[in-house]
Amino acid sequence: MTARKFTRDYLVELIAEHRTVPAAVRATGHYATSLRAAAQRHGLKWDHADQGASRRISRARLEHAARMYSSTTAAAKALGINNGSFARLCRRYGIETPGRGASESGSGKYKAERCLVEGCVNRRWSPREELCCRHMAERNRARRVA
After folding, report:
1. What predicted TM-score, i.e. pTM, was given to this entire model?
2. Do the domain assignments include residue 98?
3. What are the backbone dihedrals phi and psi of residue 99, each rounded to the nearest 5 degrees, phi first?
4. Is 10 within the bounds of a domain?
């Protein structure tokens, strides 16, 4: 592509028509760095609205998705963002994410407790189970034999 002198009028027209650098690059074929540098030289600013869908998601929509879906993957897919972005936004706003290992109360803060067999130091699988995996296997084996 040949070198082009970007006039202020041409840049103002591009910014008004396309609003963002990526949109102007797609439409004109100019290099993004050239457009940004020329705009900066003339004291113009590009709109950064499309630099990530996560910037357009309100806290209310995030909270609603976290309540409605059983996993972060499903909630992120519904919002049209990736899973990591959903988790990061939830941390930023202090929203509790739908997660694995949530207790029956739905708090999402289940702390595994010890097995109820005396002397065992292993942790239980879930709040509903009384035994660790080793003792559960022994109990199930005994039931199958009997």
Report:
1. 0.38
2. no
3. -140, 170
4. yes
142: in domain: yes
CA distances from 66 to 90, 99, 136 (A): 8, 9, 34
Is the CB of residue 68 less than 8 Å from the CB of residue 39? no
Distant-in-sequence, close-in-space partners of 130: CB < 8 Å, separation ≥ 6: 115, 116, 124
Give dist(CA 116, CA 105) in Å, integer: 22
Q: Are residues 60 and 42 in the same domain?
A: no
Residue span of the structural domain in which 74 resides:
53-93
Same domain membership, residue 38 and residue 1:
yes
- Locate 40 and state its tokens: 């900066």
The encoded tokens of residue 86 equal 């959903």
CB-based contact 98:115 (threshold 8 Å): no
| Total domains present in the chain | 3
In order along its 146 residues, the chain shows pLDDT tens digits of 445 678 889 888 888 888 778 888 888 888 888 888 888 888 888 766 445 555 678 888 888 888 888 888 888 888 888 888 888 888 888 888 876 434 444 444 555 566 777 777 667 666 667 777 777 778 888 888 86
